[in-house]
Specification:
Alpha-Beta Plaits; 24% helix; Glyas_Bleomycin-R_OHBP_Dase; YCII; 14 strands; 2,3-Dihydroxybiphenyl 1,2-Dioxygenase, domain 1; globular; alpha+beta; four-stranded mixed sheet
């Protein structure tokens, strides 16, 4: 079940006062604990209401009212979206809200799900929209070095290596030669809820990746370039990392494990001026 944990506004947040480093660090640690527990989906802070507005429709007329708004305690300063098994489980996480944030008011609300509504044409339209898969993940095959590769990827990206399961730890052991029992049947690297998965394949079943590349995109240029350089160690650079007309930074490489990568910074945002982009 999905819940929204809302942090109510107060005079400080409405004044636009930014949290100090202590609060930022505590919130990052808190979110990371939830991320590792598979609870944290997303979360953001909101700028003061003076930078926002309300849109109301009355008697067919739409009215836009710009902030700030007086009822501070009814406003939101931020929110987190949690995936929890029950309201009680979500409350336990809410209780752990960092003390460094001082006296706060939190509100916890469960999302509606499609199962809450009566069958009918309206629900059918929403179910049609929900036919998309809940996740899109990438699975890589390795010739026997899956453990080394996935551990390296976790180190480089900072993502959480949530699974490294060997053949010998599963019922597949009885059908697997003993020398392969220590190889990986399932590895999973959790990258903000998206997963890079992998497994070791028997010699005759392994094929190097062809026609596919793993894409990582970063907001910070220096971070994107650092990841590119680490992945390129011992590998082959196809396109050196640098500014392009579609990204502040972008590069292509195949790492030492034979996995092709696209590494970008704010891909889709052109860094060039209009004059530079003219043919």
């Amino acid at each position: 079940m999905r819940y929204m944990l809302m942090r109510k506004a107060d005079p400080a947040t409405e004044a636009g006062e930014l949290p100090g480093q202590g609060v930022l660090e505590a919130m990052a640690d808190y979110n990371n604990r939830m991320l590792e527990a598979g609870v944290f989906v997303t979360g953001d802070g909101l700028r003061p209401s003076r930078e926002g507005c309300r849109i109301e429709r009355r008697d067919g007329q739409v009215r836009v009212t710009h902030g700030p708004f007086a009822e501070t305690r009814e406003l939101l300063a931020g929110y987190s979206v949690l995936e929890a098994d029950s309201l009680e489980a979500a409350i336990e996480w809410a209780r752990q809200w960092p003390a460094e944030d001082g006296d706060v008011t939190l509100e916890l609300r469960r999302y509606f799900s499609l199962e809450d509504f009566a069958p009918g044409p309206g629900l059918d339209k929403h179910r049609a929209m929900a036919r998309l898969p809940s996740e899109l993940n990438v699975h890589l095959c390795f010739p026997g070095n899956c453990r080394e590769a996935m551990t390296f990827y976790a180190e480089v990206t900072g993502a959480r290596l949530e699974a490294l399961i060997t053949y010998g730890e599963t019922p597949a052991a009885r059908d697997t030669p003993p020398e392969r029992h220590d190889q990986i049947i399932h590895a999973s690297l959790n990258v903000r809820g998206r997963r890079l998965m992998g497994a070791d394949m028997a010699g005759h079943a392994y094929q190097p990746p062809q026609g596919v590349q793993v894409h990582l995109d970063y907001e910070a240029l220096d971070r994107a370039e650092a990841v590119f350089n680490r992945l390129a160690e011992g590998g082959e650079v196809t396109m050196p990392f640098g500014a392009t007309f579609w990204a502040q930074g972008f590069g292509m490489l195949t790492d030492r494990f034979g996995v092709p990568w696209l590494i970008g910074c704010q891909t889709g945002q052109c860094p060039m001026s209009e004059e530079e982009s003219q043919p």
